[in-house]
Amino acid sequence: MELKLQDARLLSYLYHHAREPNTKIAKALGLTREQVDYKIKKFVDEGIIRQFTAIFNYHAFGYKSDYVLFLKFAKPIYAENFYKKAEKDPHLLGKITTSNKYDLIMELFFKNEEEFRKYLFNLLNKEKDKISNYVFLTSYYAKIYPLKFFGSKKEEGVLFNPEMKEIFMDKKDIQILKMLAEDGRERIVEIADKLKISPELALYKIKKLREKGIVSSSAIIFDMKKLGYFLSTIFIDIKNMSEENEKKIKDFAEKSESVRSIFLSMSKPNCFIQLFHKEHADLINELNKLKELFKNEAIEMDVLFVDYPEKEKINTLPFL
User: How far apart are CA 290 and CA 273, in angstroms?
Assistant: First the structure.
C-alpha cells in the first residue's frame, strides 16, 4: 500500500501526539478537522491502526529489570501453543514470532534479577521437553525511535530511564493508566465519568503522570504489513564494545530512517536493532552500512525475520 504524503504525515504525527484533539492535529498538519476525523476513522476501519495505547516508564512502577527472551521450540506446534498461553503472562509486554533460528521473541519486565531467574527456571522446567534453545538479553540502554521513514525526523523518540525511582500512584492514577493502556485516545470527559471525578481533575492527573515521566508517550500499533513494511531484528556482537563503538552504534540508530528501536546489553550479543524495511534490498543496505561502520572491528551479525500477529491487542501494562 502506497501512502499519500498527507496520510504518512498524519500517521507519523499521531504516533507521538495521539492524545491531542483533532483540531490541534489538523492545525499542525494544515488539514481541516473534518479531514483528520475522516482519515483516522478510515485508518481504524481498514485495520491500518490496530490500537491506540501509551508507552510507560516501567521503572516508575518498580520494574527495574527488562529482558528480551528468545525461544526456540522442538516443534512448530509447541511454539504455537505456547504463544497462545503466554497472552496472560503478567510480566509480558509484547511478543512476536520469528521465521528463523528462534520461534518467539518476548519482551519481559521484572522487579529484579532474582524474580527473572525464578521465572526462567520455572518456564524451562514446565516446557523442558518443548524448548530446544533460548537466549536472553537485559539492557543498560534502550530507545524507541519515531517513524522516521514517514518523515518524522524532529521527534526525539522514547529513551527509557533505568535510574528512575519507583513513584507512588494512587488508585485513581492506576485506573487512568489502565484506561490509557487500553485506549490511548480515551477522552478526558470519558475518563472523568468512569472515575466519577471532574474533567479538570482528570486532566490534571494525566498532566502530572506525564510530568513525572510515568507516561512517556502516546503510541499506536500499526499493521505494518498493510503499509508494505517488514520488521527484522539484527543481532550484533561487537567484540570491543568501547565507548567509541557504543557511540557509533547509537549514532547509526539515530540517523537511520529504518530503525525502530535499539537495545544495548552487557551480554552476547551486546546489541540488537529492530528496523522496518520494504524490500529485502533495504535490509541488505542497512547491514552493509553496519559492516562499513565497523570494518576495522571484530563483529558478528545475524538477522531474525519477525512477524506481528494479526488483530492481536498489546497490553502495555500487563502487571496492573
Answer: 11
The yes-or-no verdict on residue 82 having pLDDT over 70 is yes
Q: What single letter denotes the amino acid at residue 62?
A: G
Count CB atoms within 10 A of the CB of residue 294: 19
Distance CA 37, CA 48 (A): 15
Q: What are phi and psi of 166, to 5 degrees?
A: -65, 135
Q: Taking the CA of residue 244 as centre, how many other CA atoms within 13 Å lie in the half-sphere pointing to its CB?
A: 6
CATH code of 81's domain: 3.30.70.100
Q: Which domain, by its residues, includes 110? A: 60-146+224-307
H-helix segments, 129-198:
171-182, 188-195
Among 56, 83, 73, 97, which Cα is nearest to 214's?
Answer: 56
Does residue 28 come out as left (phi exceeding 0), alpha (psi in the -120 to 50 range) or beta?
A: alpha
Neighbours of 15 (CB within 10 A): 19
Q: Which three cell numbers stand for residue 127?
A: 516446557
Instruction: Give percent above pLDDT 70 in the chain.
Output: 96
For the chain, count helices (H), then strands (E).
Answer: 10, 11
pTM: 0.86
* Residue 2, CA atoms < 13 Å, CB-side half-sphere: 0
State the pLDDT confidence band at 150, using cuts at 50, 70 and 90.
confident
Does residue 135 belong to any structural domain of this protein? yes
CATH number at residue 3: 1.10.10
